[in-house]
Amino acid sequence: MKLYNKTKYPxxxxxxxxxxAGKAVNARTxxxxxIATSGKAGYPSCHGVATRxxxxxxxxxxxxxxxxxxxxxxxxxxxxDRGYFKITLPYPFLPDWVKASESYKQGRLLxxxxxxxxxxxxxxxxxxxxxxxxxxxxxxDRFFVKQERRKRHDNRAWEKDAIxxxxxxxxxxxxxAQEAILNLSLWIxxxx
Length: 192
Ligand SMILES: [Zn+2]
Fold this sequence. Notes:
15% strand, 192 residues, 9 helices, binds zinc ion, two-stranded antiparallel ribbon, alpha/beta
C-alpha cells in the first residue's frame, strides 16, 4: 500500500490497520494508493471515497510541496492498482474546548479508542472492497452501471456488495486484524 498519511496517527499503526482491512475483503493491497486525512477536531466521524484509475498525479498526493512552489519536482504520475481511495479519519486528540463543552461532559460526544478504530476499520474495508471490484472488473457492463446509478446510493449493486463485505470483515476479524485494531485503539487512549 502507498499510504499518504496526512493525519496525526502514527504511520506504522495506521498502515497495518488499513492493510488488514484490505486483506479482510480480499483486495490486492500492495500497490494501491491510500490518502488519509483528518476530520474536524472533536467530531468522531469517519468516511471515505474510492475512485477507479491507474495513475494519480503526484502533486495531488502532496499538496504541501505543491504550495511551496516545488511543482516541478512533483510532476508526473504515481501508479496504483486499479484505483485509490481517500479516507477521512476522526481527529485523534480531544482539544481543551471539547473537553470543556457541555456535550462532552454529558457524555454525548464519545471518544473512545476502540469504537473510533473500529469505525476506521469498517470504513476502510468498505472502500477496499470497491478497489477489489475495480481489480476484478466486477461491474464493467456500462448499461448495468447506468441502470444502477438511478437507484439510491445504498441500493446500488456495488454498494450492497461493499456493505456486505465490510460487515463480514467486522463480524469475523482475523487475529492480525484484531491485533491492529487493538494497537491503534490503545494509542488513541494513551494520547487523546
Ligand atoms: Zn461505497
